[in-house]
Amino acid sequence: MQKYKIITYGCQMNVHESEKAAGILKTLGYEPCLDEADADLLLYNTCCIRDNAEKRAIGNIGAAKKYKKANRNLIIAVMGCMTQQEKAGESLRSRLPFVDIVIGTNNLDKLGEYITQFTEARKPVIAIDDNENPAINENLPIYRTSGTNAWINIMYGCNNFCTYCIVPYVRGRERSRHPAAVIDEFKAMLDAGYKEITLLGQNVNSYGNDIGLKHGFVDLLEKLASFSGDHRIRFMTSHPKDFSRDLIDVIAGSKNICNNIHLPVQSGSDKILKLMNRHYTRADYLDIIDQIRAKIPNCGITSDIMVGFPYEEEADFLDTLDLVERVKYSGAFTFVYSVRKGTPAAAMPQIDPLIAKDRIMRLVALQNKITKEVSKTYEGRTCRVLCEDMAPKHDNLVCGRTDCGRMVTFSGNIGDIGKFFDVEIESSKSASLFGKVIN
Ligand code: SAH
Ligand code: SF4
Ligand code: F3S
Q1: pLDDT tens string 251-298
Q2: What is the DSSP string of 191-231?
Q3: How far is the CA of 82 from the centre of ligand 3 (A)?
Q4: Order of strands across the sheet that contains 300-307
Q5: Are 75 and 41 a contacting pair, CB within 8 Å?
Q6: 3-state secondary structure of 415
């Protein structure tokens, strides 16, 4: 049997797309292997959101040359967002001439055909479809590898064109799946025993706009939450500009929807938010946070925050720190702005990298302090936790997340994976909580 290994970079969207690629490979008779050196096919699923994401992927693909030397029949394929950048297919092949197959984000469904084409002709295959509105293929096989959680795409692409971001260029326009298709997949996942389902989209709050639905996401979520059973629903990502107050009520009113919202703010400065084309102000954002806090008790709110965007001055950065201080995120992904070729911000004057470095360190220090403080507030509380896995490096400890997204470690064994437990939190350490099962 032929063996494959998929190496995935980037966001959950990519993680899930790798599951689709694995589904296709399975139908071709391939089976997964753990070690690159054992593979007959290496598939790199790339990300280009920041320069370092791209460099990491290129570096690792470059290092794969040694496997090709050892196994002349090895097929090396590259897919994902990097391939869809302007002229990326050709430039990837010229930088990494041993890559056999390069496929664009719209071409994944034909992965099987490309592999056959390559094995028959032994000539490089570059297939990158530039269509910004490709039809959604509802029939892709999926080989899920994410344990107790099942990812479900509800939409593809992005229409927002935040001025720093490459995603709209490499993922095309917003395309929503039909609610019936999402509901069918959701039911199938519950029947298959998945306990947690995460709905995916670059901006889930605009779900359905492109297919004429009025309150697409709220209606969908309400419908999905109405299925009975012991399971929970997460979703990401929400864009503050489209975050409807009805959504807060739906989350507050359902025990199945996690009280956990990832609501990237990017910056706390109105000047910068405007330059970023985010379509909300700091006050709009804080108002959403106030409403969430008022209606959803113990809601875990997380964010993406960027520093070093063009024109960011110390005062703008202080506005970001102040916002972080006010919101008290339970966690945040923090980034230094990275120039993406072809985006509007690439043409703006760039700030000194040393200043950006200083700011990211100050931001990380502040958020770490807050994460720790928030963790402390859990001590003594009892949380419902879905056991997701064995704790790293421990035979008798397991881990899983609370509804609000906090990771908890507690004693247990492999048979506990996929079950819910009431766990009393005894101690905390930065973002991690430790506790004991009380039921
Ligand atoms: N669709 C999601 C996020 C997608 S990208 C949203 O709009 O929230 C994930 C995060 O990467 C973004 O929220 C942003 O903080 C960061 N990011 C995107 N482009 C970036 C760039 N050019 N440089 C640095 N960080 C970037
Ligand atoms: Fe990028 Fe903005 Fe779209 Fe998110 S909403 S994917 S940050 S353009
Ligand atoms: Fe990266 Fe593409 Fe996701 S650029 S963050 S993998 S949508």
Answers
A1: 999 999 999 999 999 999 999 999 999 999 999 999 999 999 999 989
A2: HTT-SEEEEE-TTGGGTTGGGT-SSHHHHHHHHHHTS-SS-
A3: 8
A4: 260-262, 300-307, 331-336
A5: yes
A6: helix
Residue type, 380: G
- Render pLDDT for 316-354 as a digit per residue (tens, 0 to 9): 999 999 999 999 999 999 999 999 999 999 999 999 999
The whole-number pLDDT of residue 354 equals 98
Q: What is the arithmetic mean of pLDDT over 142-170?
A: 95
Candidate of 174, 239, 267, 275 to mutate for ligand 2, largest count of ligand atoms within 8 Å of Cβ: 239
Per residue in 374-395, pLDDT tens?
999 999 999 999 999 999 888 8
Q: What angle do CA 53, 130, 103 make, to 5 degrees?
A: 55
Ligand 1 centre and the CA of 304: distance in Å? 7
List pocket residues of ligand 1, CB cut-off 6 Å: 49-50, 164-165, 167, 202-203, 237, 239, 264, 266, 304, 306, 335, 337-338, 340
* pTM of structure: 0.96
Burial 390-427 (b: 16+ CB within 10 A, else e): bbeeeeeebbbbbbbbbbbbbebeeebbbebbebbbee
Helix (H) or strand (E) holding 75: strand 75-80
Residue 171: which of 17, 330, 388 has the closest Cα? 17
Q: Name every protein residue with a CB atom under 6 angstroms from any ligand 2 atom.
A: 158, 160-162, 165, 167-168, 202-203, 239
Best residue among 167, 204, 237 to mutate for probing ligand 3's pocket (most ligand atoms within 8 Å of CB) is 167
Closest CA to 341 of 45, 84, 130, 103: 84
* Ligand 1: centre distance to CA 264 (Å): 8
Q: Give the number of the ligand closest to the Cα of residue 49.
A: 3
